[in-house]
User: Fold peptidylprolyl isomerase from Paenibacillus montaniterrae.
Amino acid sequence: MKKYDWLKVVVIVQAIGMVALAAVVVWHYLPYFAGSGKSGAANQLQGEGHADDEVVAVIADKEILRQQLIEELLELYGDQTLEQMLVHQAIQMAAEEKGIALSADELSQALAEAISGYESEEQYFEMMKNQFGLSQKRVMSDIRDHALLIKIATHDVAVSDEQINAFLVEKQAELEPKQKLTLSWILSDTYDEALQIVNELSEGAEFAEMAIEHSIDPYSAAHGGSLGEIESDDPFYDRGMLTEAEQMEVGTISGPIETEDGYAIIRLLGRKTEAARSEAELREWARLQLALQQVGPLSEVKQQLLNHYVTVIRK
Assistant:
């Protein structure tokens, strides 16, 4: 799993809870939304009135009741899902109260940050769907909430021009346009295994097929060895491997390269230098970073919103 997946895991776990509880709600309240013209088969499936003692499954001679299912799901996901729902509503209320909205450009930028490290939006949404069961609509809702929360948190924070100027000087090296490398790799346990793979590649074997068959990195192997787009100074990848990749021609293969995780064979698929940001974009970025430093953790901002807007919680 790439570093970006680990950074998002908390949000993803909360969203999984939302999906689980949504299934319970739909199941439990379906009769109240269904029309009166249901077929006999639908009536048989849904049961009369969805009584709590309705049997929803049978394993061997043991019956699983609807109420047991609901209680189990609520115990597993109820608290975190309820909190996620309340946070969503609180963010919307605070934004409306403060007259804050998220523009299309701001949402696009938030999405671009979320998919950083993936080859495309499609690959990112596919990963979220396949690994976590999250629809594109659900993922976009979480991204939108997070971006809106940041605007709410920093809306009333004062940052001076002098602070921005000093911050930009301090971060000057980090703000230089970065080179981005599109890489695939095959990771092996031993040098000999990696060398054998290199030999087969030199004889015409397909890189993606070899990655699927031989790589010990399961996530990238499932995508033909793809690591997506990586910044050339990314601290989460082996420095020696990235240095080698910087010197390669696009389309070529190099290895074995010793890394902390094993021996890597890499293929450079593309190289580009990101566009330089305008002065206005840099100053807005600096203002936001400085404002967030004053605000503190966004988790505390969420809790403040909950304290302000939530009046009753019944469990």
